[in-house]
Amino acid sequence: MPRLFHRPPKYSLHKGSNQAIVYLNGVATYLGAYGSEKSHQKYQEILGQWNALRHLQASPTQKKSLDEKLAEQVTPVMLRLKWRQGLKVSIDELAHVYKLHAREYYQKNGKMTREGELIHQMVTLLGKKHGLEMADDFGPVELDNFRDDPSDAALERRCSALVIWVKIQHNSWHSPYDI
What we know:
Shape: elongated
Largest sheet: 3 strands, antiparallel
Distance between the termini: 49 Å
Radius of gyration: 27 Å
Mean pLDDT: 77
Number of domains: 2
C-alpha cells in the first residue's frame, strides 16, 4: 500500500553501515552516524525541504474558474449525503457525476471508447435541456419526450443514431420474467 503524502519521511537506521538513512520519493539519503547530532541536523534540513515541496504541490499555481470549483464539489458522496438529508438533486449534478463515471469506466488502452463518447454526448445534451430540473421530477414521460425530440438543433447526427439505438433496445428488451 502506498505511503500517504502527508506522512513525513522516517529517520531510520541502515543496519549494514550503522548510518542514519531517509527515503524520500524512493531515493535513499545517508545522513551520517545513526543518533549523532550531525545526522539529526541533516534530517531536519530534509524535513524542511520536504515540507516546502509538499506545500508547493498542494497549492496549484493556476487559478481555477468558478465552474471548475463547483465541479470539484459535486461528487457521488456529496450527492448521496444530499439525498439522505432529504434535499433535492438536480439533473446537472447527476449528469456531471455520471460523466465522470463514464470517463473512467468506458476506457480502452487509456482512451475513451466510442460508447463512452456517445454516453457523454447524450448526458451533456440532457443536462442542457433539463439541467435545472430536479431528478425527482424527471420521470419516464420526460425521458420519452427527450428521446422523441429530433427537432432539436443541438442533437447531432451521432446522438440521434444513439437515440434510435436506445429506442430499439428499449422496445425490444424483455424481462426474464416475461416468458
